[in-house]
Amino acid sequence: MEGTDPVNKKLAAALSGGAVLVLALSGCSSDKGNDKLDAWAKQVCDAVQPQAKKIEAANAAIQKETSDNSTPDQVRKTDAQAFQDMSDAYKAIGAAVQKAGAPDTDNGEKKQKDAVKELDQISASYASLKTQVDKLDTKDQAKFADGLKDIATSLDKLSKSGNDALKTLEEGDVGKAMAKQESCKTASTSAPATAG
Prior knowledge:
The protein has 196 residues and is mainly α. It has helices spanning 5-18, 20-23, 35-67, 72-100, 108-134, 141-160, 164-169, 172-179, 182-189. The protein is elongated and about 60 Å long.
């Protein structure tokens, strides 16, 4: 496993950046309330919490695989499952934001649509990474390491791109309403890092 170890560490590092995407979904301060907005925030936060846990568990699985002396087959299997879980989680968060409707705020409808579109794109990106992992040749150590390197690069890009629409969705009163929700607080405190 020597040959793939540094690459796998790179993969784990790139991944931990990706987890922050969803956990941007928690505001940083709160003040006077808006009942409609609070209800919207509660609906979204309650739906996000289990998905955030799923993303965190997928991250942890890949991190664990990197620290163990795992065989290429084990790495491929774990990574593929983790990417599938992440894809499902982002899809579910997108569906939750869609179902909650537009938040009661300026340009709420546009912000909601953009966020859903972005979450769906992130979900599709993880699904495509899963496909890439599935195709890796575990018999050839060098090829496997190269394949992992490509995936780590894609993952790195994915963790740096995206979530602009999510940030826009959470600006101002929406973020404040989300910050009050117990489930959003829980989702964000378990994250490696959050903006706030």
